[in-house]
Design brief:
- It is a single chain.
- With about 425 residues, the protein is of the alpha/beta class.
- The protein has 3 domains: about 120 residues, Leucine Dehydrogenase, chain A, domain 1 (Rossmann fold, 3-Layer(aba) Sandwich); about 160 residues, Rossmann fold; about 70 residues, no CATH class.
- The chain contains 16 helices and 12 strands.
- Helix 9 links the parallel strand 11 and strand 12.
- The chain is globular, with a radius of gyration of 22 Å.
Length: about 425
């Protein structure tokens, strides 16, 4: 690994100071690609630069793991509306004005994160001089789907059947509830769940359908209205005797206070940076299988990228279930064979891809020579995919084998498994939308 990547310090920290409101936050630029980074805006009165810097590094790794040429960045709104004496919309307008130079020179493309929503982002981008165009997509299902496929592969590695799987889930938001449904539909049993107002635990399992109904009525206060489980402190959730822990809310949720009480065999996060420093390594040393955040929850940005290129939910689902799942299988097998942590293997893939973004490739001149070069590098199937991709970009309504070939091109671009496995994807699979 390049020594530059061993340095956790971000490349740049930009303080955001509004003429009217004063200091309201910051943007962290971790590692740009072609001068650009992308990542969400986290809003909390106590969000710190250290937290956001760690999140920016996760974004660098996430983009690179997917082999998408974008750098990692993140922003924090560190402000209290009461102290500032303004409303939420005014704060978002001020933030948008403050990041306008970064948006205009393509240094930072912002998105939503904990504490912000699409309405906030629309205000921010309008004030930054770059209003959002077109319909915005909800990629939460695809985030849940990559977490689910990760768990499926871990079950296979440990020979655990879904019917025997016990898990606890931190956070019952959109992604968490989607994931809970996916797991329970396969026979897994959720015995514990939490929101910001507390946690529930029942050895016999929780009723997902009832929890979803209560969430619609009471939001995160569903904990106070579910009658078939014990209410337990938040900190007790991860200490229960289960197979799987799914951190899905707070940063540093696994920390010095609870790391030694964890009994689970697997940890697969929805949330980013769920581990306090050093705790992940301590658990891995004990034999706990941990798939890092930038791998497990990458489905959201994968799907957003595909949506932006004209593909739909079924197309994204096909890539996750047929390519991403193979990526995870290979990483798990490599970690087992080499006796290294899953994080080590996944980071080596991500940094290798990141390095490739900066390589200068000399393209041969002349169409016939380029075609021969493409066949030599990617094979005849790769050439077919590139032709299909070009056609799809011009005619996104095409269906059938041509559309599937274009999807294969995206999979090849986005997820560097092995070329042999990608080349083996059928051009007429049943999972492709038609």
């Amino acid at each position: 690994m390049d020594s530059d990547f061993d340095d956790d310090r971000p490349q740049k920290v930009v303080e955001l100071i509004d003429d009217l409101l004063g200091r309201i936050g910051f943007v962290i630029i971790d590692r740009p690609v072609n001068g650009s980074t992308a990542g969400g805006i986290r809003y909390s009165s106590d969000v710190t630069e250290d937290e956001v810097a760690r999140l920016a590094r996760v974004m660098t790794l996430k983009w690179a793991f997917l082999n998408l040429a974008m750098g990692g960045g993140k922003a924090g709104i560190q402000a209290d509306l009461e102290q500032l004496g303004c409303d939420r919309a005014s704060l978002m307008k001020a933030f948008g004005r403050s990041i306008a130079p970064l948006v205009k020179d393509h240094s930072f493309y912002p998105g939503v994160d904990l504490g912000t929503n699409m309405e906030d982002l629309e205000i921010i981008m309008r004030e930054a001089g770059s209003p959002l165009e077109g319909g915005q997509v909800d990629s939460s299902f695809c985030t849940a789907l990559t977490v689910f496929e990760t768990i499926r592969q871990l079950n296979g590695l440990l020979s655990i059947k879904f019917n025997d799987l016990l898990f606890v889930l931190e956070g019952f938001g959109k992604v968490g509830s989607e994931l809970a449904v996916l797991l329970c539909n396969q026979g897994a049993r959720m015995v514990g769940v939490s929101t910001q107002f507390g946690a529930l635990y029942s050895e016999s399992g929780l009723d997902i359908s009832e929890l979803i109904l209560l969430k619609k009525s009471y939001g995160d206060r569903l904990i106070e209205h579910y009658r078939h489980a014990d209410v337990i402190p938040l900190e007790a959730l991860f200490e229960k005797p289960v197979d799987l822990i799914i951190p899905g809310a707070r940063p540093n949720a696994i920390n010095e206070n609870n790391v030694d009480q964890i009994k689970a065999r697997m940890i697969v996060p929805i949330a980013n940076i769920p581990f306090a420093p050093q705790t992940e390594g301590r658990l891995a040393d004990r034999g706990v299988l941990i798939v890092p955040d930038f791998v497990a929850n990458c489905g959201g940005i994968l799907a957003s990228g595909m949506y932006g290129q004209g593909f739909n939910l079924q197309d994204a689902r096909f890539v996750i279930e047929n390519v991403y799942a193979q990526v995870i299988e290979e990483i798990l097998m490599s970690a087992k064979k080499q006796q290294r942590s899953i994080r080590e293997i996944a980071e080596s893939v991500a940094w290798r891809n990141y390095n490739s973004f900066h390589e200068v490739v000399l393209k041969p001149k002349g169409a016939p020579i380029r075609v021969i070069g493409l066949i030599s590098t990617h094979g005849l199937t790769g050439l077919v995919r590139r032709i299909a991709w070009r056609i799809f970009q011009r005619y996104p309504s095409i269906q059938g084998a041509l559309r599937h070939a274009a999807i294969g091109r995206y999979a090849e671009m986005g997820l560097e498994v092995t070329r042999d496995r990608i080349a083996g994807m059928s051009l007429t699979g049943d999972n492709v939308s038609t």
